[in-house]
Amino acid sequence: MKNKIATITILALFLLFSCSEDFLNRPPLDSITIDNFYETAGQVDAATALLYGWPWFTLNDKAHWTIGDSGSGNDWTSDGQMAQFFTFSVTTNNAHLNEAWVSLWMVVAHANAAINEIPLRAGPDVPDRVVRRAIAEGRYMRALAYFYLVRLWGGVPIIENNTEIVFDSRIPRNRVDDVYTLIIRDLEKAIEDLPESPASPGRLSTWAAKGMLAKVHLAYSGWGQSGSRKQADLDKAAQLAADVILNSGRALLPNYADLFRYENNNNQESLFAFQWLSCMAWGTQNTNQAYWARSGAITGAGDGWGGYKGPTIDLQREYEPGDLRRKPTFMLDGDHYPELNRAAGGYSVVVDPAEGGPVHAFVKKYVIGSADDNGGPGTVCFMSTGMNTYVQRLADVYLIYAEAVLGNNQSTSDPGALAAFNAIRTRAGLPPVASLTWEDIRRERRIELAYEAEYWYDLVRWHYWNPQAAISHVSNQERGTYGWDEENQEVVVNSRKYPVTSANFTLPIPQSDADSNPLLLEDPVPYDFGGK
């Protein structure tokens, strides 16, 4: 960890000052220096633009969905490194474990640079509101990175200023409670200084911070509890979620499938998404389509390797008949997608079980097709699209509200909770319900947010307050695939189940960092906020 964090710190300080006035462009440094860069509001905005994509890339490339969907039982995979998350056999040298760890600490370092450097170096002509907004962007990003870190690894080191650890980053882990305290403080401060309307499409708003803070309180309500959750945090989650739902001016897109089309980036339902650029420098793009598309016939870019993965039987069984979310999430034999391969009249899915191998579905979400399907050259290239990655959208907030209102009750018929929950169901073409249980919400969240790297974190927070129920659920998931019995000419279940323990709900520290900083393997210690 010493070498990595020191390197990350130096790189963050270098790259933070290498953005142009355009939101996501990254030109050469030219004559820019730290002391003269923040002379205009545009330069300050350019400095924080980096936080919206590049430091998150190594997480988003493979680790994000490998942990969030393969680890949670949504997605099976035959890839060895990814399959370790699927089978609960993650080693300390796993490549994707390391990618998540490094990427999240990179975000922390970049966010800290924005928080600590911009107020010191902004020129006299930069309005105070611009400086405060830039710091708030940094605080949101730091909070988000720590929210991932604490749910994946539990107690982790709290670093508020990377320059203090450049020469010695052998620091201990801090308690989960303290990490959540930092996250909540950062988001509360971000709410104060972010604008109600984004400064430009894709930028953060106060509503994005309120939506994320509602999610944090919902998670934290269960930490350290047994069988129930802390009412104060549930109440806060409900209050914040209601504020976003009623006052943000955001709305659900009428058609679920439209959420995952390139032309609808930064739509009215998106609260925050990683911002990607296609066909530019490596690390600025979304690579998901390359790994998820069934074949190169879909992408037209020389990639499309999705035959090694797909939704598990367990995920497929969660869907009710007629659920309009199924087809935009994963492909089945006979599906037709007019938005793919448009020039030829669309793409039809044909699966011949006689070819052998698993008779499985294929991922559709985030698969947007070729350049011709998305507006022409520059929109899709080899391993590169500009499709945003959702971090939080309004549907998530609706379900947070419903769950927070349900709270510790066995069921609820609260009109507000039902209205929020049923808005999600009716968009999906399903009938409304007259009462809600926690199981109803768990299932709805899984389906609504499948392949958005969310379900593992729902399982982790479930394990916070009801570990035996979470363990039982995961241990009994049918993580297998459908196969073909050639002799009897019928589809069969290739069953795969993996019993788990509480230890499987946190990830191991990457070996290289544990070697350089043995304190990471010791018990977490309290963090001294020093009156901050």
Summary, kept brief:
43% of the residues lie in helices and 8% in strands.
Which residues form runs of ≥5 with pLDDT under 50? 1-33
The CATH topology of the domain at 2-194 comes to Serine Threonine Protein Phosphatase 5, Tetratricopeptide repeat
Q: How many helix segments?
A: 19
Mean pLDDT, to the nearest integer, reads: 91
- Terminal Cα span: 26 Å
Mind explaining what this structure looks like?
Helices cover 43% and strands 8% of the residues. The longest helix has 27 residues, at 95-121. A two-stranded antiparallel sheet has the order 1-3. A two-stranded antiparallel ribbon has the order 2-10. The protein has a two-stranded antiparallel sheet with strand order 4-7. Helix 7 (176-193) runs antiparallel to helix 8 and helix 14 (394-406) packs antiparallel against helix 15 (415-427). The model is unreliable at 1-33 (pLDDT under 50). Among the domains are: 2-194, Serine Threonine Protein Phosphatase 5, Tetratricopeptide repeat, CATH 1.25.40; 288-387, no CATH class. It is mostly helical and 532 residues long. The radius of gyration is 23 Å and the shape is globular. Strand 8 (380-381) and strand 9 form a beta hairpin.
Topology:
Blueprint: H1 2-15, H2 41-49, H3 57-70, E1 75-77, H4 80-86, H5 95-121, H6 128-153, H7 176-193, H8 206-220, H9 231-247, E2 270-274, H10 288-292, H11 296-299, E3 309-311, H12 313-318, H13 326-329, E4 330-331, E5 336-337, E6 347-348, E7 362-363, E8 380-381, E9 384-385, E10 389-393, H14 394-406, E11 411-412, H15 415-427, E12 436-437, H16 438-448, H17 455-465, H18 467-475, E13 481-485, E14 490-494, H19 511-516
